[in-house]
């Protein structure tokens, strides 16, 4: 061994207990950061050079060894508690070092332990750099191979557990049997059982939602979009008195998740001014997306912080889950950049380091996901006459033109494909943003579940297609637009 890995870590002073923000931020980086991935690529290239040192091992043997090492490294659960992680980290690096010193026959064992250390270390980029300097080529090659295989395995197994079984639907590549090169190939939802007309297929809470600006002066709960009419004890934010809530619970949740950094009445002058500008751009009816993105990030941070505090590991973070949905590739506008900068500053104040995460690329990718996947909420009340997408530049998928109170992003419902003859429809039974998907036609197990993104009625095909193209840039291939000829 060139130098001891532990000695190198101590020398750069990285063995302190990491703060929650630090752990949280680098957890994301480890999993998602493109620059980290780029770094991995670079490291992989370097490691490939070192591969030549391992002349005795054939490529096939190496692959087997990498696969086996990864399985072994992940066999025993990793600790979730910070103190336990630190303990395991030190033990694993030390074990890795002594196994390596025992000679070539122990290289794979050494890699297993070094890899377990990498899995619990808060800043994997830093650790890889240190491994690069301290662990000789043959073992480093195995570790980098394990890392690449680990990322691939996670990607491939995502749909094994998503959507949750309780949703009664499965995500599938469609049409059945088509491969990704088929122009009609898409991910969609298929029924896990038969449904009759009127059956509830699933109920889904959104990850973020937003009232339509057309209703900014009307009485609606800012969090769940419920009409306040008839609500006995509505609540309001004491600082900005701009937003009302249908209950203390909605107010508290809103504060917990995002309003603490999005309150235009905040005592902190820079927070107040950024929040005011974001809220104003929504109130002027320009866009739904900036506030939805801000709320989404707040929700994500809160979810992950709670998970960390409770010492729970999640299979996939909310960001990873969101990244599995498709996005629209958008050219950035000057307003996007201004919103992104504001948001980065607001979020960075919550979790130091996270402002880097909220870069322009992620902002636009999130905006594209919202424009592509958000669904119109129709929670009732005064909105009866409000048209879908009213007064906003952002179009939202809506099976009817009127009665739209806002928009929301749902992870599972993001996979619902459009059909001009749909077999399901979203409804909002509690008059809030919780979506209930109901069957509008009999659906057989295995059949694709579809909704309509526009009001279809008895409109002719060219009119429907033109609207779908204009609003969603989609060339409709549903059975009504493109009947299958036998
Ligand atoms: C909300 S996503 C639906 C899930 C989608 N299949 C996916 O892969 O993300 C909307 C996108 O799916 C595709 N899509 C949905 N319905 C379609 C249809 N009837 N015909 C062709 N493409 C459709 C379009 O690319 C559209 O922009």
From TrEMBL:
CDD domains: SET_SMYD. The lineage of its organism: Eukaryota, Fungi, Fungi incertae sedis, Zoopagomycota, Kickxellomycotina. SMART domains: SET. Keywords: Membrane, Metal-binding, Mitochondrion, Mitochondrion outer membrane, Protein transport, Receptor, Transmembrane, Transmembrane helix, Transport, Zinc, Zinc-finger. Residues 221-263 form the MYND-type domain. It is a single-pass membrane protein. One of its GO terms (cellular component) is mitochondrial outer membrane translocase complex. Belongs to the Tom20 family. This is Mitochondrial import receptor subunit tom20. The keyword Transport applies. The chain crosses the membrane at residues 6-28. Pfam families: MAS20, SET, zf-MYND. It comes from the Eukaryota. Residues 165-454 form the SET domain. It is found in: Mitochondrion outer membrane. GO terms for molecular function: mitochondrion targeting sequence binding; protein transmembrane transporter activity; zinc ion binding. GO terms for biological process: intracellular protein transport; protein import into mitochondrial matrix; protein targeting; tRNA import into mitochondrion. InterPro entries: MAS20 (IPR002056), SET_dom (IPR001214), SET_dom_sf (IPR046341), Tom20_dom_sf (IPR023392), Znf_MYND (IPR002893). The keyword Transmembrane helix applies.
């Amino acid at each position: 061994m060139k130098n001891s890995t532990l000695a190198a870590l101590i020398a750069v002073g990285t063995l302190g207990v990491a703060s929650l923000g630090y752990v949280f931020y680098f957890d994301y980086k480890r999993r998602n950061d493109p620059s980290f991935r780029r770094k991995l690529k670079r490291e992989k290239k370097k490691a490939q050079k070192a591969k030549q040192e391992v002349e005795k091992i054939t490529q096939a043997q190496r692959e087997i060894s990498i696969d086996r090492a990864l399985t072994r490294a992940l066999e025993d659960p990793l600790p979730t508690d910070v103190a336990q992680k630190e303990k395991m980290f030190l033990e694993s690096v030390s074990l890795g070092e002594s196994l390596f010193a025992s000679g070539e026959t122990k290289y794979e064992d050494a890699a297993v332990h070094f890899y377990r250390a990498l899995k619990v270390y808060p800043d994997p980029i830093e650790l890889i750099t240190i491994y690069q300097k301290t662990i000789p080529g043959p073992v480093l090659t195995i570790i980098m191979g394990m890392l690449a295989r680990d990322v691939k395995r996670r990607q491939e197994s995502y749909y094994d557990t998503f959507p949750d079984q309780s949703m009664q639907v499965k995500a599938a590549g469609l049409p059945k049997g088509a491969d990704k090169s088929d122009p009609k190939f898409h991910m969609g939802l298929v029924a896990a059982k038969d449904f009759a007309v009127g059956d509830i297929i699933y109920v889904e809470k959104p990850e973020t939602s937003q009232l339509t600006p057309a209703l900014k002066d009307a009485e609606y709960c800012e969090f769940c979009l419920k009409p306040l009419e008839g609500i006995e004890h509505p609540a309001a934010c004491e600082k900005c008195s701009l937003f009302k809530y249908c209950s203390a619970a909605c107010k508290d949740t809103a504060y917990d998740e995002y309003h603490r950094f999005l309150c235009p009445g905040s005592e902190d002058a820079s927070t107040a001014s950024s929040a005011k500008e974001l809220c104003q751009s929504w109130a002027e009816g320009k866009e739904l997306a900036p506030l939805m993105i801000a709320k989404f990030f707040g929700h994500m941070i809160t979810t992950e912080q709670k998970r960390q505090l409770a010492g729970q590991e999640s299979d996939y973070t909310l960001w990873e889950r969101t990244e599995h949905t498709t996005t629209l590739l958008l050219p950035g506008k000057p307003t996007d950049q201004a919103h992104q900068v504001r948001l980065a500053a607001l979020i960075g104040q919550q979790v130091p380091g996270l402002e880097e995460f909220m870069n322009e690329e992620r902002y636009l990718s999130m905006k594209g996901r919202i424009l592509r996947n958000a669904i119109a909420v129709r929670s009732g009340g005064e909105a009866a006459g409000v048209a879908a997408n009213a007064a906003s530049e952002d179009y939202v998928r809506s099976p009817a033109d009127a009665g739209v109170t806002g928009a929301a992003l749902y992870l599972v419902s993001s996979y619902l494909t459009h059909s001009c003859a749909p077999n399901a429809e979203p409804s909002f039974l509690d008059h809030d943003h919780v979506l209930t998907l109901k069957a509008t036609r009999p659906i057989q197990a295995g059949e694709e579940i579809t909704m309509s993104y526009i009001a279809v009625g008895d409109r002719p095909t060219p009119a429907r297609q033109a609207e779908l193209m204009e609003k969603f840039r989609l060339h409709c291939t549903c059975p009504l637009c493109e009947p299958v000829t036998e």
